[in-house]
Here is the input.
Amino acid sequence: AVAQALWPDEGREERAEKIVLKMTEWYLAGDRDMKVNIFTWNNIIDAWSKHADADIALKKTLSLVGMLTKQKDSKGRSLVGSLTPWTYESLLRALSRSSRPETLTEMESIVNQMISKFTTYSTSQDREENGGGGGDTKRINSSAIQPSINHVNFLLEAYAKRVTANPEITQRARSLYQTVQNQLRAGNRSMKPNIPTYSAMIDILTQSNGPRDDIHDDISFADSILKQVEGLIASGISKIEVLSTEDYGKVMDGYEKLNDFSKANQVKERMEYMHNNNNNNNNNNN
Here is the structure.
């Protein structure tokens, strides 16, 4: 079944699903050797979430996740056990590809619930002061599903696709980014930002189209992300790639639209330095 789900041809998802549904039927009929675990289902759900047709991807992913939460044996126990972080990655991927107007709300609900269940606060004031992420968090709930930066990235990518039509998304993205930082301080190392995180944030911030002061603030924030990555690379603490020339170009364009050509030129000089230095390091390694 897993092989069918991973096989790169049309119809693999449906074939794999039929196999596993038949196995489940035999298991419920009494063949205990036919028990299907969540790992097998995750491969199938993952394959459906990547289906070429985004509408089919979402429909099937939602259907299978919903089915798994309802499937019980004769004693009322889940047939596959608990859903996993991978299950939610697939669900968020399928949602992020959808053009439905309610998609963002659904994705935000999933990510926020994962974070709130994983993180326990001492008081409601702690929760409010820390934006739902919690620098003063007292405890990590290890029995809950651990949210990771991959879950956040799918939501950020969805924000980036819609921010032009809905300027308030910029603030929601900034709030989410702060929550990521708070999660790191709370001890959730799986929330460590990566290149897709930084690139998505830069994409969102440089599409800002509000009042001039807000645009300047957003472009400056995007520039600070570039500098943050540059600092990580310079320190050698984190093995992270240089952000692309496209990411730098978006910040440069943002400053130029504000007629701040000095800042734009500074970003260009830093980009050239970072990429030249990166190319030299790659040549030395080769």
Observations:
- The two ends are 41 Å apart (CA to CA).
